[in-house]
Every structure is written in structure tokens, then in C-alpha cells.
Amino acid sequence: MARAREQQLLGKAAGLAARPVKALGHLRRALDLLDVPGVDPVERLEVRARVLFTMSFNLAETGSVDDGLRLLDVVRAELPGIPDGPLRAELTSMLNGTHALLLFRVGRIEEGITYVDLDVAHHERRLADGDVSIVPLLVNTLHNRGMAYGEIDQPAAAIRDLDRVVELSKQYDLPLRVGISTHALGNVLRRAGDLPGALRRYAEANRVFQDLEPGLLLRLRIDQSEALISVGLADEAGRLLDEVLPDLRKQKVGQDVAEAELYRAAAALVDGDLTLAKRMANSAQRRLVRRGSPGWAAVAALIALRVDATKALESRRPSEKVVARAMELATELAARGLFDQAAFAQILAARLEVRRGDPARAEQLLRSVPKSRRIEPIDHRMVLRLCRAEIALARGNRRVALAQAKAGLAELGQLRDKLGGLELVSGAALHGRELGELAVRLVLEGGDSSANAKRLFTWLERTRAQMYRYDPVESTLDSELGERITEVRRLSRSLLLARLDGAPTAALETRLAASQRAAMRLGWSASPWGTPRPVATPAEVMACLDGRAMVSFASSGDDLIALALVGGRVRMVRLGPAALATESARRLHADLNALAPDHLPAPLREVIGASARREAENLDRMLLRPLAGVLGDRELVIVPTGALHVVPWGVLPTCAGRPVVAAPSATSWLGTTRRAREEATGVLLVRGPGLQAAQAEIDRLAGYHVDAKLLGVGDARVGTVLEALDGVEIAHIAAHGEHEPENALFSRLELVDGALFAHEVGQVRRPPHQVVLAACELALNRVRPGDEPLGFAGALLAGGARTVIAASSKVGDQPSAEAMADFHRSLAAGRSPAVALAEAVAADPFRRPFVCLGSG
To answer: Domain CHAT spans what residues (predicted)?
Structure first.
């Protein structure tokens, strides 16, 4: 009997650590040990009940919930064999608690709560009688009930139970339970719409699990991925799930594997990978049907339907069969109490009816969709707004369609204002993409008048580069994020040395990527990024241009458009196919990279240079010459779009010698231009390792400034540089740099002790007014949804720097040093950064591809 009890406890521990196959092995051995004659029948029944309770849960995890429930029915029939008293009361309580848990796992929430209430009442009575040994069981039961209340949208009751769990766990020294219930509280907050709060709780739980039970990180990652999809970071959610799915499949945790596949399908759908989305949704649905989880299976079916609806909406006339499927699924989901999902299926059916040419039927379907709730997922609210706009448009009511788009983007803005971390703020734009595209298309259809041009300008500003419309609040890296970034720096340094030595790098690259992602995830739980500024109006921008001209580029479908704000007027000019400009910009970028090496053979330099000049001429003809009569010789503020973010404008003939500033949006340019200048003094000059021309370059630059502070190679350490950046007027950093396209905030400058990341520079308390990055490609960005550029220079601007000078292509050491000498000479003579850079670039534009970003 002692050995059987030991095996039951081992099985219970393995199950709690998410290792059900191992748990079942222990539990079967326990049953074998009980199958001997001469054992006390009451004790045998007691131990057998405990084994079957634990086995029922693990059978439900690896097979079907019905298998687990059948075992519980066996126990319920056997319990009367135990005399009435404390033991029977305890086992009955365990039976009720386990029964409730299995019902919860398959979505039978209200039914499960009736059992768990009995369990809680039993434990509370024992604790009130002074039996503190009951605390672990009470904590577990309260946790399960709290999760159940969260599932049925009763967040107040859920938070009440989970807060009590955390309080009891701290009081009675149950640290792992603190982490488990903090994780659960994150799930409740996520469902209630408090995504920043949810991500903070996930970060807290992550710390506990890493120290005490790493096996619980797998489930945490699934829930984190759902939150990330909610804020538009579907690509990161997909990577997160790709990490955990192999381990989940090895452990054969059926429900968790199915949920991970379901969310992987959702992430792929948002990312536009319809093939992967359908495959994962179908796999999840099959698993969930086998497990006896019809509610979850219907949710998987909804994702598969969304894939088919997406394809149907792109066709000329969707099949009626897709509409019928949507309505059937809506009915099934509603019958299972999944009202948000049912409403979404019905909205899909309505959108398909609009596409089929029947707005009256679509309107009828929408009337039966319940009114949006505050806690309804943001993507559901955006699709509802989009459907209403499409119905209005089908009836010829453009005004109502635009009103729906405006209201939807305002709702999205309210969510974004609560988010912390640049990636989250940027990613949220994904959910408003279709609404924004619809509005822009409608405005463009209204003609090219000045009034319509102003309307288009306002819509573009509502949809683009929202990350840069925040005045950043003072923040610091928390200790764990700081430690993680230090680890990334160490691994980056090791990888660089391995590449230089020709050593194998695959293992280091894998570790570095994992460490980068871990650091980024810690940043998601930060407090709100900053204070939002209102979207700029054309009148406000023109009042600040002061003789300059602004050109804001945009695309709709394959049409490229320019808005020119000049002399108190807004003009719209249609430029032709966007694809041609995109391809030309990419070819120019490749040519400039090829021209960069210092010692390129002259014949090769001539061939590549001719190609670069040809592409610059093509881009100039497409982008700026149609505006020549309007722009004259004015200084320019350019708001690029898409691939145009890589263009070094000084190489275009129209911009030769002309001061040009590139800004993420007109709103960001206006905010930076208007923002009061904080007190800043001095010039910081930093020389990183490995630049042959840097010694002479930095010494020469110091001669132009009377208040220059130099940090040579030996002093150019990450901590020293970050401290020195605080509060200076101009910071010039001559160091090798690299743009990281997959993790833009890990774009970096190489210093003597490792990489200085964009993540860290954005945390400087008083960022420099002007930053000069004499490094390759650090003006590059990863262009995220909403035409949102994010990279090293972008992080500086978002963090409060007014102007950033950086290269958008590779640049050789010698031309970089010469360009910077010319630039600083002009700067010291009193010229503005934009004017000084224009003069410096004009001397050799194709070898000096620097751009002026920000306010200029």
C-alpha cells in the first residue's frame, strides 16, 4: 500500500508538471500494486480512488475527456464502500473537484462550477476549523473556479478567486502556486480586454516558472501567443508557437497541442499564409473532435471557415455554400455559448452576401448580431465596422462607410494608447489595415481636388506610423530585461568572432535568436509607451513648413499617389504603378550596397555606378518630376511609403544639393518640430572598434566643436556610451552597425564590449537632440502594418531624438569619414542638419547614401 501511494504521488507530480504519459505509467503501476489479496478494503478503496482521480485527468489530457469522466463514474459508484466520516468527505470533495476540472477543460463551464462550488465549501469549512493542511487544496480549487468564471465572462468573480489564491499562496509559502495563479490572472485580464495587464502577468509567471517548473512554460507560451495575435503581432505569435509545438507533441498533451495548432492557424491567417492556416485549423479540429471537445472544435472550424471566406471574398462572386457554412457554424457556436465566435461567423456571412450583391440580406444578418461588448476582441470589432462600411458602400452611401472606418480606427487607437513597447504599439495597426485601405480607396475615387487631397491626407495620417505620434514617457529597463539584453550582447559578440574565425555558427545563431525573442517578450509587459498626440491636420502642417514643401507618398492597390503640401495648398498627383517604383527602389538599394567597398576596382565601380544612376533617374522621373512645377527649389519634408523608406533621397537628381528630411508621418514630423527643446549641451564623439579611418575622423570632427567629448575605442563601452548620450546636443557614433530585419529593435552598433541595441538607446532618459550614425544601413527599417518603419534610427526618433543622420545603404569607411567631416564643418558653421547633410552628400551622392530623419 505504501508503494502504491508513492506511485500515485509521483503520477500526480508528473501530471502537474504537464508530463501525462509519465504520470500514467506511475498510476498503472499503482493499480497493479493494489491488485493483491489481504489488503484492508477501506484503505484499498481510498488509495484506488486517489489513483483514479489522478488517472482520469491524465487520460483526459492524452485521450478523450469522456475516458476521464467514465473513471470518475466508477469512483462515485465505489465511494459508498467507505464509512461516512472525514475520509469519505475528503474523497467526495476530490471527486467533485476533479469532475469540475474535466468539464472545464472541454468548455462545459457552468456545469463544472456546480461541482467546484461543493469542493470550495468543503475546504473553507476545514480551514475555518483551523486545519491549515487544507490550504493547498483550497488554493487549487479556488484557482480552478477563478479560471472558470473568466471563461464565462465574469471577470470580477474570477479576479476575486485568483487574488485570494495569490494571497493564500504567499501567506503559506506556495511559490509555484503564486506563478500558476498569476498566469491564470493574465488569462482573465486578456479575455476582459486588458492586454497590457495580461502581458505583465505573463511576464511575472514566466519568471516563476523558469526558476521552479519550466514544464509550465509551454502552456504559458500558448496563452501569450493568443494575446500577441490580439495586438497584431501574428508573426511573433507564430514563432512562439513553432517553438513549443514540437515539445507539446512529444508530451502528447492533446488539448494543449490542439489549442497551440488552433492559435498557429489564427496567426498564419493574420499573416496571410492561408495554406498553413487551413492545415493547422483542420489538424486542431480533428484532435478536438477525438478529445470530445466540441466547443473548441467549432472554434477551429471557424478559423478554417475564415480561410475559405478570405478566398471567397477575393473572387468575383462567392459561392452560396460558403455563406451556408458560415450560418450553420454560427448556429452551432451560439448553441455552445460561444457568442463572440458565433457573431464573427455571422459577420463573415454578411460580408459574403455583400460580395454576392445582396446588401439587404447582409443587413438582415447584421441586425441579429448582438451589440458589441467592451471586452469583445478588437479584430471582431474591426470586422464588424468593415462589414457595415461595405454594406453602406453597396447602397451608395460613402459618408456612412467613411464614418464606420473613422469610428473603427478610433477604437483601435484607444487600444494602442494602453500598450507598452514599440513592437506592440506598431503591431496593433494590423487590425485596422482593411478599414484604412477602404477609406483611402473611397477618398481616391472622389477625384483630385484640393479638398479631396486634404481628406486623403487626414486618412493617411490616421492609418500610418502611429508609433511615432507618442511623446515618450520616461522609462527604464527592468533588471531582468537588462540581463537578457546583456546575454544577447554576449552572444552577438561570440557570433561575430566565430564568423571572423571561420568557425561554425549554427548553434550560436540559434541561441542568439532565442535570446533576442526572450528579451523582446519581456519588453511587451512595459507600461504604456507614451502620451498620444492628435493626428496632424493639413492646416497645422502647412503652418509649420515655413517655406518648405512636404510630399507624402501613399499607395492604394497598385496606384502610387503623392500629396504635396506647398504654399498653403494640398495637391494630389497620381504617379503610376507602385510596383515599378518599389522595384526601382530595391534595385537602387542593391546597387548602392555593391558600390560601398572602399577598394572596388574602377571598371566594376563604373558599371555599378551607371546602373545606380539609371535607377536614381527612374525613381526621380516617377516620384518627383511630376511635382517639379509645384515644389520649385524648396527644401523638402518627405513621408515615404513601403519600399521608398530605403531611398537615400540625395541621389535623386531633383534632390541634388537640396535639403531633404524623411519622416515616418506628418504627425511625427509636426510633433517633433513643435516639441519644446529640452536643455542639452555639448557634442559627444564615439569611435567604435574596427574602423580604419575612425581615429583620424573623430580627431578631425573634434576640431569643429569647442565642447566636444571624445570616447575612443577603449572607452566605447555600452554602459559608458549610454550614460554619455544622456542630455547632449549632438551625438556622433562612428562604429560598425547592422540592421536586423527580423527583430528591428535588435539592430545594433558594435562597440568594444559588444553590441549597443536600439532597445537600449530608446531608454536614454534625455535623448540627444541630434544623433549621427556613421554606420551602414542603420536608417533601414522593418516596415510593419500601417506603413510603420521600425529600426535603429526609428527607435531613436520614437524615443525622443529630434533628428537622426544615418545611412540607408552600406557605406565604405573612407566616404563615410569624408561625408561626416563635411557635415560637421557645415553644422559648426551654423547650418541646420538637413542643409549640412545636403551639402555633404552632394559631393559624392552614390557613395554617401546618408539621409536626414526626423525634423531636420
So the answer is: 614-840
